[in-house]
Every structure is written in C-alpha cells, then in structure tokens.
Amino acid sequence: MLIDLKGKVAIVTGAGRGIGRAIARTLAAEGVTVAIIDFRQDLLDDAAMEWTEAGWPGLRILCDVREAAQVNAAVGAVNEAFGRVDILVNNAGVASGARVEKLAEAVWDANFDTNTKGTFLMCQAVAPIMQRQASGRIMNAASFAAIIPSVGGAAYAASKSAVVQFSRVLAGELGPFNVTVNSYSPGMIPTEMNGFAKLPDARQQRLLDTLTLRQWGNPEDVANLICFLASDQAHYITGASIDCSGGKYATQFPSAAYES
Ligand SMILES: NC(=O)c1ccc[n+]([C@@H]2O[C@H](COP(=O)([O-])OP(=O)(O)OC[C@H]3O[C@@H](n4cnc5c(N)ncnc54)[C@H](O)[C@@H]3O)[C@@H](O)[C@H]2O)c1
C-alpha cells in the first residue's frame, strides 16, 4: 500500500515538541505542507530550524488553542497562505490532576480548556473550509485514560473521554461533506508531559508490565497511524476511536505471558 499525501495541507496543534512534533515531521516527510501551531515561541523557533534544514514548506503559528480569537486567526492564516486545509490533527494537550477531594477547580479547567475546548475551537474553525472542499480528515488526540483512567486523573480522563464523544458527534455532522473525524488514544510514550523515561527503574517496569508488547511506544508510532488515517486508504474509517498503546491491558495481566 502506497500512502500518498503529497500536496496536502495539514494543521497540527501542539507540534512544538513530543508526539505532535513527530506527527508534523512525518507528514512533512510524506510531502505535506504542515502548519505547526504551538503556544511556545521557543518550540516554534526550534521547529522552524528543522523545517528550513529539511527544505520543507509550511508555517509556524503562535497560538493558544484555548483562545477562540487566536484559533480563528491561525486557521485564517493557513487558509490564506495555502487556500485549503486537508488534515487537522488536534494533538495539543495537557495532563494534570489530583484525587477528586483535593482537585483544584483551576486544574479541572486547565485540562478541559486545552484538551476539550481547544479541540472544539479548532474543529469549529476548520470545518467550514473542509465542508467547502467536500473533503477533509480530522484526528483528535484522546488518551488511553479515556479507555481505562488512573486514580488521580479525573480531570484529564474526563476531558479526554469528552474528546472521544465530541469526535463521534462531529463525524456524524461532517459525514455528508466527505470529512472523516476520528479520535486516537496514545499510551505509554515517554515524553516531557509524562516523564516516564525519568522514573526509577522499578516504576518503569510496573508500567511496562501493563503492556502486551512490554516496551515503550515512540512518537513515530502515533505519527504513522495519523498518516494512515489522513490518507485516501482510510476514507471508510470515521467516528472511530483507535488505541495505539502497545496493547495496554488487552488482557488483565499482560506480564503473565512473559513469566510463563
Ligand atoms: N505521551 C503519551 O504517552 C500520551 C498518552 C496519552 C495521550 N497523549 C496525548 O497526546 C498529545 C501529545 O502528548 P505529548 O506527550 O507529546 O505532550 P507534550 O507535553 O510533550 O507536548 C504537548 C505540546 O502541546 C503544546 N500545548 C499545550 N497546551 C497548548 C495550548 N493551549 N495551545 C497550543 N499548544 C499547546 C505544548 O507546548 C507542547 O508542545 C496530548 O494531547 C496528550 O494528552 C499522550
């Protein structure tokens, strides 16, 4: 199967670092013009250097996805520069939490503002462009926490579960316009967000024991899924929620297979 994304235009949010950066890089290497959105200028400058060195076309836009005016301006800038938006990846996310009785209202809001409202605002800004084109692919970052949440993760898990249901509704609404909308759930990919790689060995092992493949994932594993979902070959997949987590808890005790 040859995935051909040449000439397409993508927006990837939170693409300054981590999984988002790998998604943007992988799409760019496939010939996609990528507009990188992030709210940190230092990360955008770093991405600009990589794009210049590689000779990839694209844009870097400073934008906080929690702010409607900034989102509308960013999407408008991409539309003005390239005349279309074929692919939208809502990757920007934050994770913070505490047990419910100690969970500050501000922490609850922080998770929902970025993870859920940011995704909604971006989709609302891009949808009319995709409707006009009668084509488009939207992929929204949920999390394994939307499948099985962790103690202390109520705000994050609830905000990501909301992304899954939001994506299904939007898939229904944009189906008549040949626009697909899916959510995806990464799991166990060491990044600066979760600091897995810096945990003591015993704690790392405990987490790895939850995985069928018993190994950390790479940001590129998610990026490859996104490339497929963005391709013509994935035209019949919409309203789905796809798990990319090394088979986390595919069975109750995945480590049993390694012990026997
Ligand atoms: N790493 C994992 O194992 C894992 C697991 C489940 C879900 N996810 C999800 O994948 C996505 C990427 O995670 P990551 O581990 O690469 O995180 P990360 O913290 O390394 O990267 C997040 C990026 O989003 C940007 N960002 C945050 N808030 C923003 C805002 N308001 N506006 C614009 N940009 C903003 C940050 O500057 C950063 O560049 C997130 O949505 C996360 O919830 C990751």
TrEMBL record:
<protein>
    <submittedName>
        <fullName>Short-chain dehydrogenase</fullName>
    </submittedName>
</protein>
<dbReference type="Pfam" id="PF13561">
    <property type="entry name" value="adh_short_C2"/>
</dbReference>
<dbReference type="InterPro" id="IPR057326">
    <property type="entry name" value="KR_dom"/>
</dbReference>
<feature type="domain" description="Ketoreductase">
    <location>
        <begin position="8"/>
        <end position="187"/>
    </location>
</feature>
<keyword id="KW-0560">Oxidoreductase</keyword>
<dbReference type="GO" id="GO:0016616">
    <property type="term" value="F:oxidoreductase activity, acting on the CH-OH group of donors, NAD or NADP as acceptor"/>
</dbReference>
<dbReference type="InterPro" id="IPR036291">
    <property type="entry name" value="NAD(P)-bd_dom_sf"/>
</dbReference>
<dbReference type="InterPro" id="IPR002347">
    <property type="entry name" value="SDR_fam"/>
</dbReference>
<comment type="similarity">
    <text>Belongs to the short-chain dehydrogenases/reductases (SDR) family.</text>
</comment>
<dbReference type="InterPro" id="IPR020904">
    <property type="entry name" value="Sc_DH/Rdtase_CS"/>
</dbReference>
